[in-house]
Amino acid sequence: MNTPQCTPNRGLEARGITKIFQSRRGSATRALDGISVTAADGEFIAIVGPSGCGKSTLLHCIAGLIELDGGSLLLDGRKITGPGEERAVVFQDPSLLPWRTVRDNISFGMELRRKLDRETARERTEALIDLVGLRGFETHYPSELSGGMRQRVNLARALAPHPRILLMDEPFGALDAQTREAMQSELLTIWERDRKTVLFVTHDIEEAVYLADRVYVLSARPGRVQQIVDIDLKRPRPPEIKRDSAFTAIELNIWKLLQNQNAKAMNDEHAA
Ligand SMILES: Nc1ncnc2c1ncn2[C@@H]1O[C@H](COP(=O)(O)OP(=O)(O)O)[C@@H](O)[C@H]1O
Ligand SMILES: [Mg+2]
Asked: Is residue 21 in contact with ligand 1, taking CB distance under 6 Å?
C-alpha cells in the first residue's frame, strides 16, 4: 500500500479533479473533491468506492463528457479537454442499435468516422468479432443476444477506433455471476494481448482485485482517494486465484476500508 501520488511521464493523469453539480433549485452537490488518479501506459487501474461517491462522475470527467470545476487532465504531460478518440468509454448499459446486426453494430462507429477505407474497416470488424468471441453470432440482432454477448459487442465497439485508454463503468454490473466471471477472464486475456490502459470502475471488490494492478479506494461523497492498494499478484491470473489466501487477504483489507466509508455515508445521510 502507498499514499496517494506518483506521476508517470507517459500515460493519463487526472490531477485534483473537482466536480460540483448545481441543481435548478440552487443547491449544490460536491461529487468530487480534488481527486487525483494516474494510469501509466498499459496499466490496469480499478476504482472502488461506496455508492454515490462519484465513481461515474470521475469517469465522465476523464472521458471529457462533463466539464471540470477544478483540476486538470493530462495525457503524456499535455493538458487535454473534451472527448478524444484515444479514450473509449464502456458503460454498464450497452445501448446497441436494435435494427443493426452484431457485425453492423461493431462497424457503425467506423462508418461514421469515414477515416478508414471500406476494406480496412471490414477487416477490422471481423478481427474484433473474433477478439470478443462473437464468431457465429455476427448476423444476430441485439434482441437475440444474452446480456454477456451484448456487452461483448459493446466492448468491440469501444475497441474499434484503437483507443489507448478504456474507461469502463461497472461494465459487468448487470450480468449474472457466471457470465460476469467469464467476462472478467476474457477482458484480462484481451488486455494481456495489447495492454491498453484501463480505468475500471466497480463496486465489486473481488472484481477489482482480480483485474487490476492498482486499486483506488475512494471515500464516501465527496469522492477523494482514501488509499491506493497495489495488487502484487502474478499474471496471467487464472480464476482460481480468487481462492488464494494472498488474494482474500487483499480483498479483506479493501473491504475494511470500505466498511468505514459505508458507515460514514449512512451517518451523513441520517445527519442530512
Ligand atoms: N448530472 C448530475 N446532476 C446532479 N447530480 C449528479 C449528477 N450526476 C451525479 N450526481 C450526484 O453526484 C454524486 C455522485 O454520483 P455518481 O458519480 O453517479 O456516483 P457513483 O457512480 O459512485 O455511484 C451523487 O450524489 C449523484 O446524485
Ligand atoms: Mg456509478
From this structure: yes
